[in-house]
Write a structure and sequence with these properties.
With 430 residues, this protein is of the alpha/beta class. Helix content is 45%, strand content 20%. Bound molecules: S-adenosylmethionine (SAM).
Length: 430
């Protein structure tokens, strides 16, 4: 466990739900936590010592249960030892329920000299999280600064899942692309993050276009795209849209065809993986002809709803969010401002959710395959996740899958997911 985290969260299992709420508010700000180590199969003491060693600060959630918990007391003792070695290591007690007089006396022996926070004094958990950061001298990560994800379509499970996703999403994309293609008699099209070309070819089927350039960082996928779809009218090139070589590769292809720019840029399920989405959009703006349009499809888990509430869905969303391959799961909401910053105008949001009832429920099973079938997740080891809890939840989700899917197929659950479809324009020059 060499990984470093910002906060170690110590709590009693009896307060798991409350602890999860606070951890979720902390993580909202991009701050990382060690949490739930007790479920680990590894040696508990070794695991805890390591985790505290690899944390910047320590938060203990004080309740009558946690004050009486031997594990919590061990963790506090270890944190006090750590603070002796490193005075910058803060210990932050957070009271989450009123303590009995007896418990107050006990815990005062350990933590009486420290500055305590009382969760009851804050309007919500995000305000509490900010107070914790202030006391820990922690700078929350700025939301806009993303990390590129490790997304790959190398694993068969992801290829199958993506295919299902595209068959379904194309029902929406088609409506918006129809409007876009009507504007250009024979457009030059750039597809960013084209993968093996299947999706863009599906979306271009039956449409008139002059030339298609697909770009992707995945060399094998690009080779496959060229093999299946390469022609006079279509070329696929391996390059990274966030780097200089992207321009060189694009210009080379444009030159060959006497093009000065593209009329339509298509980018589907890619911005969330880039880390540098703002820079990528600025580059794409330069490659668009004046009067040209960009089409963007991207995801945002803020619009996810499962009704009636089920922990199963929450667990699936949590696993997705913490997979190292799933990228920025709040990208959808950021796109309008990123487009504006890059110079685009007429930014239009065509729709922001898809639901299990769309198209008369015809795609109900495909909808399930998007996020809720663990057999279609490439997750095979803890290394696939950015925290241990997500990996730990996998077995829980696997065990409940068949029962939950049957209930969903029976119409017992209604689900919406945040999938945003945007278009925007590069204004004609005067
Ligand atoms: C979720 S897939 C989407 C593929 C396709 N657009 C679709 O809708 O089916 C994301 C794709 O973006 C590609 N990608 C990720 N980062 C990239 C980058 N910096 N430049 C170009 N492609 C990238 C990945 O290799 C992958 O093929």
């Amino acid at each position: 466990m060499a990984d470093h985290r910002d906060l170690f969260i110590s709590y009693s299992n009896q307060n798991l739900t409350r602890a999860e709420q606070i951890v979720s508010a902390v993580k909202y700000f991009g701050v990382t936590c060690w949490f739930q180590m007790r479920d680990s199969k590894k040696n508990y003491v070794e695991e805890i010592n390591n985790a505290i060693n690899h944390s910047s600060d320590f938060v203990v959630l004080l309740s009558n249960a946690s004050v009486s918990s031997l594990m919590v007391r061990n963790e506090i003792a270890r944190a006090i030892y750590q603070q002796k070695k490193d005075p910058a290591f803060s210990i932050i007690p957070v009271v989450i329920e009123e303590l009995t007089e007896e418990n107050m006396e006990v815990i005062n022996l350990f933590l009486g000299s420290l500055n305590w926070l009382d969760a009851g004094n804050y309007n919500d958990d995000k305000s509490l999280a900010l107070a914790i950061f202030e006391q820990a001298n922690l700078e929350p990560v700025h939301e806009e600064e993303g990390k590129p994800s490790n997304y790959s379509t190398e694993k068969e499970a992801e290829r199958i899942r993506l295919k299902e996703q595209n068959a379904f999403f194309n029902q929406y994309a088609k409506m918006y692309l129809d409007g876009l293609f009507a504007k250009y008699p024979s457009p030059a099209v750039l597809d960013v993050g084209c993968d093996n070309g299947d999706n863009i070819m599906l979306r271009l089927a039956g449409r008139n276009y002059k030339f298609l350039l697909g770009v992707d960082t995945n060399e094998a996928a690009v080779a496959e795209a060229n093999e299946h779809y390469g022609s006079e009218k279509a070329a696929f090139v391996c390059c990274d849209v966030t780097r200089e070589d992207f321009f060189r590769s694009a210009f080379k292809q444009m030159q060959k065809r006497g093009l000065f720019g593209f009329d339509i840029i298509h980018i589907s399920a890619v911005l969330l993986h880039l880390g540098k989405a703002a820079e990528a959009l600025k580059s794409l703006y330069l490659l668009l002809n004046p009067g040209g349009s960009i089409f963007i499809q991207d995801e945002d888990d803020g619009m996810n709803v499962g009704y009636p509430y089920s922990q199963y869905f929450e667990d699936c969303f949590y696993i997705w969010e913490h997979s190292k391959e799933s990228g920025d799961r709040r990208m959808g909401r950021k796109i309008p401002l990123l487009l504006k910053e890059a110079g685009f105008s007429s930014v239009t949001l065509h729709s922001s959710t898809i639901s299990s009832l769309d198209f008369g429920g015809k795609y109900r099973e495909a909808f399930w395959a998007l996020y809720f079938d663990p057999n279609l997740w490439a997750a095979d080891s803890a290394a696939y996740f950015d925290n241990y809890e997500a990996f730990d939840l996998l077995s829980k989700v696997r065990a409940r899958h068949d029962e939950m899917k049957a209930a969903y197929m029976n119409g017992d659950y209604f689900i919406t997911l945040g999938v945003f479809f945007y278009t925007a324009v590069k204004e004609e020059e005067d």
